[in-house]
Amino acid sequence: MNITDFVGALRQGARPNLFEVRIGFLGDGIRFMAKASQLPPSVIGPIDAPYQGRQIKIPGNRTFEPWTITIYNDIDFGIKHAIETWMNQINGHEDNLGFGSTADAYKQGQVIQLGRDGAILRVYDIIDMYPSEMSAIDLAWDSNDQIEEFTVTFQYNYWASLATS
What we know:
Layout: H1 3-10, E1 19-23, H2 29-33, E2 34-36, E3 43-51, E4 54-63, E5 67-72, H3 78-90, E6 107-114, E7 120-134, E8 149-155, E9 158-163
Antiparallel strand pairs: 1-6, 2-5, 3-4, 5-8, 6-7, 7-8, 7-9
């Protein structure tokens, strides 16, 4: 193994700063205001089966860990307000009421990995998601030359990926 072999095998590494987030009902703005995200995780948990004093690991069921995005807050609070409204429709602040059907709470989202030429490398569809947590926005008199940002954590039922290149 030498450097030439490594470069030949790598071709070109995917870049973590080349991505887009799309959540249809939030409009096109989320593509520009989503500062950070991640390709969605999933876990296949182990089932421990004791056998003659040892724990044998057997593949269990898949679980999907929460998906998080960090969003810039603009001066009209557009995306923040839309997510607050969504959360309030799921469970109201005052009346503790929400959608008549659980299915009404779900939206679809995507996180898209882009190549250096702007081409879409892979699309991850986030299926049946809803916001479970929205972070506070810290305010401080000494926070100069910054844009407010907040984090939203989504729960979802599963993701599906599609390679496009």
